[in-house]
From TrEMBL:
Species this protein is from: Pseudomonas karstica
The protein's name: Chemotaxis protein CheW
Subcellular location: Cytoplasm
Span of domain CheW-like: 83-229
Predominant location category: cytoplasm
GO cellular component terms listed in the entry, alphabetical order: cytosol
UniProt keyword list: Cytoplasm
Pfam families: CheW
Protein's GO biological process: chemotaxis; signal transduction
Source organism, top-level taxon: Bacteria
Gene3D superfamilies documented for this protein: CheA-289, Domain 4, SH3 Domains
Amino acid sequence: MIDPAFPDLGADLTLADTQAIDDCWNRIGIHGDKSCSLLAKHIHCRNCSVYCAAATRLLDRYALQQDDHHLVGAVEGDGDIVTRSLLMFRLGEEWLGIATRCLVEVAPLQPIHSLPHQRSRALLGVANVRGALVACLSLVELLGLDSSISPPSGGRIMPRMLIIAALDGPVVVPVDEVDGIHAIDERILKTAAVSGTQASARFTQGVLPFKGRSLRWLDEEQLLSAVTRSLT
């Protein structure tokens, strides 16, 4: 079940879904009173077959929920200047931006637990976010980026996890760095969309100047559709 302290993650779960998954790890397991008799054997709940089965059911829910969900985003206005909010983040050496309307939260990096019989190359496994099992995907794989490039090093650089409101429920994607949310003039976005090289980069609407470098402005609808396909 979803932790009531994190209601956003449970927004797409039906009552039947939550009743079907027994979150014993939150009651008698490592996040509960630790009274489970299997803890002595498995040390941690993530090593238990019950935890693994719950993660599998989570992924099954993504596969079965194919309702026609629509993202609704508001464009902020300030007088005659219309802006759109984008979250800027980095993967390796590349900076990317995605509309904040599909973002649930920026969270600290959590351990990712791999699953047997992975369904796709992009599926890294699951992450435990405040007691809720959430599917974790690789944007590097989805976007076709070069995974061999090492990210810049520095004491102030802190990897993060983006919790994204995908079409059939939230997913987590690890990123190397988050710069923040920026309001971009719609006129700049229109110019970027015209001059951007959409055909040569996956799920890209255009290319923007950002801190002396180029930033890929992601097409969130295409990206979220790819996320859904990777989970089914």
